[in-house]
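Protocol step 4 of 6.
Sequence for Plastocyanin (Solirubrobacter pauli) entered exactly as in the expression construct, tag removed. Do not edit the line below.
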Amino acid sequence: MIKRSIAAAVGVAVLAATPGVDGATKKTITLGDNYYSPKRVTVAKGTTVTWRWPGFEEAGDVHDVKLKSGPKGVKKFHSEGAATDYEFKRKLTVPGTYKIVCTLHEEMTMTVKVRK
Ligand SMILES: [Cu+2]
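Step 5 output, structure tokens:
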């Protein structure tokens, strides 16, 4: 019984770590007041990251998503400022570390690591 549950857990872990077809994976980051959640993520190359602002009920301050620093050759991106019901997506195709900041709250930061 114990052995079986360990095997099941390992199976799930392996599945979760495997990118989808053509490495097409997705990851969603939620914006809060004043944070990104999760604050650190590691994704496969080619993952489309979606930053999602809260719905109307949880609306807070205005936030944005700006690439402060990224791997060499990656064009900087900067979303619009929004408080609620907004989405910003970027497909991250270059491996490396992407540092994200909200230009309205300098302590509001996050890091995306893209694996090779
Ligand atoms: Cu902010």
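Step 6, annotate. The helical segments are 2-17.
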